Amino acid sequence: DVKVTQSSRYLVKRTGEKVFLECVQDMDHENMFWYRQDPGLGLRLIYFSYDVKMKEKGDIPEGYSVSREKKERFSLILESASTNQTSMYLCASSLINRGSRNTIYFGEGSWLTVV
Amino acid sequence: DAKTTQPPSMDCAEGRAANLPCNHSTISGNEYVYWYRQIHSQGPQYIIHGLKNNETNEMASLIITEDRKSSTLILPHATLRDTAVYYCIVYPLEGTYKYIFGTGTRLKVLA
Q1: By percentage, how much of chain B surpasses pLDDT 90?
Q2: Secondary structure percentages of chain A, helix, strand, coil, to 5
Q3: Would you tell me which residues 77-96 of chain A have a C-beta closer than 8 angstroms to some C-beta of chain B?
Q4: What are the distances in angstroms from CA B69 to CA A68, B32, B52, B90, B94?
Q5: How far, in Å, CA of A54 to CA of A52, rounded?
Q6: What three-state secondary structure class fits B80?
Q7: Most CB atoms closer than 10 Å: which of A1, A17, A24, B26?
Q8: pLDDT, tens only, A5-54
């Protein structure tokens, strides 16, 4: 089974701190994604990547950056955390050529609280 | 911009069929309809998908209208463990795509 692992399940950070959220997938997927999820707003796409060192902005990239130095790893970076970035963050991955089934695999989520 | 619309919430009695609708009137010819569900505090998980024919697997059935502008996910005998948020999303089989999940339908199965 595909496994998408997010490094931290729960984090508490201070305003202004630099925060790294790490995600690793073990199925050689080309595509990787970072979403945030807030009550009443559903899943919103922050950034995605279709290859090493490649990245594309999603719908809400402001305040975030990403890094993909290796195919299996996609990092979300909050350069200077703010309280409005308190949220649950979800990492996901998928293949580009998926044959008869195109499934997106998600990690368990990282709950970030910025105080 | 969400390509699908779903009711925000639904209730269903335990043991009864849960029918979750989804509108996707702007679906393209190469896009499939996928359903995922998210149980509280976990990441969404795949349920089922289809192009134009009805589909069934061990978890659910998917009914897609002939014009492909809407679909219904059917959980034939809902249990309390089916309480979750259900997302309908359309996308093609290949390529890199900005998967837009929207807000989904929060299904509550009542004892």
Answers
A1: 76
A2: 5, 50, 45
A3: 90, 92, 94, 96
A4: 37, 11, 10, 11, 21
A5: 5
A6: helix
A7: A24
A8: 999 899 999 999 999 999 999 989 999 999 999 988 889 999 999 999 99
- Name the nearest CA neighbour of A23 among A81, A93, A91: A91
Joined tokens for residue B96: 């890199």
Q: What is the pLDDT of residue B30?
A: 85
Cβ B33 vs Cβ B90: under 8 Å: yes
- Do the beta carbons of residue B32 and residue B48 sit within 8 Å? no
The encoded tokens of residue B11 equal 């209730």
Q: At residue B86, does pLDDT exceed 60?
A: yes
* Rounded Cα gap, residues B64 and B13, in angstroms: 24
Measure the CA–CA gap between A84 and A32, rounded to whole angstroms: 24
* Nearest chain B Cα distance for residue A102, angstroms: 5
Nearest to B87 by CA among A29, A30, A64, A106: A106
